[in-house]
Amino acid sequence: MKKDLNKLWVWVLMACIAAEVEAIDRHLSTAPIKWFDPDNRSIVQPKVIKRNLIWDMVDHSFVYPMTKKLDLGWSARRVGNILNIAPSRQADNINVLDEVPNSSWYTNRHFLVRMDAAALAKGPGHAHPDTSGSWEIISGKFEGQVPEFTIRDAKGDIYFLKFDAKGYEELATTAEVVSTKILYAAGYHVPQNSVVFFYAEWLTIGPETEVVDDEGTRRSMTYADLQNVLSSIEKQDNGRIRCVASKRPEGMPLGVFDFHGRRKDDPNDRVKHQHRRELRGLRAISSWINDVDRRAANTLNMFVTDEQGRQYIKHYLIDMDATLGSRSVRPHTPKSGNEYFVDFRYIVPSVLGLGLYRKAWEDAKPINFPSIGYLESDVFSPRRWVTNYPNPAFQRCTNRDGYWGAKIAMAFSDADLAAIVKTGHLSDKKAEEKLIQLLIARRDKVGDYWFRRINPLDRFWIDRRGLHFEDLAIVGNLATEAETRYFYQFLSRDGKAQGAVRQLDTSGHIPIPRDLPDGQYYGIEIRTVRSGWADKYVRVYFFVWNVGLYQIVRVDRQE
């Protein structure tokens, strides 16, 4: 029996390795690079998937981790990873340049095509309800610490109004808007969210709007009810009320999407979600903005109709009010981002340590600005950072996925972040400056962590002078040219060395020999040598059409 089990493990490990070898097959082609995933074909409208918030927490904290460990394929690969005999499974939806094509999930933006300050500040669009008439309350969540309204403006557009909790004015609304703009520029589909100010007199009550009274009975909402709800919301000295207005996305809402598996009733959903790079690499971006509540409950599928009349599902990230230093109605605790809500990795040592075991984050920093909450950059660790509940896609994040997310984060300059933070309309300029400083410091930590694990050469282009590249570590001021050396070697189409290893004399430019035969594929392997950084290669394959006319056809990064 024991021999049979050993054979089973060996077979599973070999299958994992074979699958990975097949995944990195060096097929080279001059065909156009795939920059669009055609997952927008018309489909029959799928059913609505409703997610129970309690089950969502139980599923991510207990059910998914348990089923994952019972998965022989996953367990075998983890053993193989630890023993360094099986490579990590890479994302399934990357193109030959190791990038993510545009799709109903993602659109390449700020990293590939820089957005100016105005575009970054605008994000997916300004969400300002029309003020030429009243705002009709058509529904809402009126119970609890902080109410929410759904309104219809004078133009008939639907908006969701979300407010700050008393004592933490500007906290949740700033986090929602700033993180929305960052995620949009990073490439994700998000709602139009803006900070707006209004007067209570603008609100009217719709004929079908209901509230639940103290006895649990639903009845029509009255103006007395509205005044009671508004009394729980802080007003400014001039009588205005601050909120986030979130415009309802176009289409029919179909509920949430999970961070693992596929949607069976959507023929366009062909890649398991835990193997989508834009979801795996989101871990690096989420760690930067401390998006600790990124789970199924905070996603949205919309059944949309595009300009060509095609009907399909578009996938959104929503509810960014629990990002940065905000936990929606109050600041985050120091634990947020450092541990899962139920984290067995720390429970045992804490119990056995009898109070002597101390965690790095337990010495809490003071909250100097209630409007930005609890956010710090000293203890923050991109390696250790986690969401409140285990996220299946984040747990599958490889070094290449993390590098992809980190280079998107590093694409935001200090000035870019200042332009975005200003849209949060913080009244205290010192708080605004502090939030910008924290985002810069956390961004640099994210870049430094992931760039040290993958050779951070990128933005390749080729011309008569040769192969050009940018060293993102130097561009991001994480390393200097003085401490950096580059070595390169030409390769055959199958990756075999051709000629000697040479040191690059001019940073960012590798000359190509003029005597390479036309109509052939070649590669260049580049290694970047810096003390304390991983010695990993990046290989760029190209096709020679004729002397001086070349085409990049593939980029391979060593994991």
Topology (elements, then pairings):
Layout: H1 2-23, H2 53-70, H3 72-82, H4 117-122, E1 135-141, E2 148-152, E3 158-162, H5 171-186, E4 192-198, E5 203-205, E6 210-212, E7 218-220, H6 223-230, E8 241-247, E9 252-253, H7 277-280, H8 282-289, E10 299-305, E11 311-317, H9 344-352, H10 392-395, H11 399-410, H12 414-421, H13 429-451, E12 457-463, E13 466-471, H14 472-475, E14 485-491, E15 497-503, E16 509-510, E17 520-529, E18 537-546, E19 549-557
Parallel strand pairs: 1-5
Antiparallel strand pairs: 1-2, 2-3, 3-8, 4-8, 6-7, 9-10, 10-11, 12-13, 13-16, 14-15, 14-17, 17-18, 18-19
Helix pairs in contact: 1-3, 8-11, 8-13, 11-13, 12-13
Task: Tag the structure with descriptive keywords.
559 residues; alpha+beta; 6-stranded mixed sheet; 14 helices; 19 strands; globular
Assembly type: single chain
Strand-pairing-aware structural class: alpha+beta
> Which word captures the global form?
globular
The poorly predicted ranges are 5-25
Order of neighbouring strands in the sheet with most strands:
4-8-3-2-1-5
Tally of separate helices: 14
State Rg: 26 Å
Give the fraction of residues assigned to helices.
25-40%
| Gap from first CA to last CA | 36 Å
Mean pLDDT: 90
Query: How much of the residues is beta strand, in percent?
Result: 15-25%
What is the count of β-strands? Answer: 19
- Summarize the biggest pleated sheet: 6 strands, mixed
Give a quick precis of the structure.
It contains 14 helices and 19 strands.
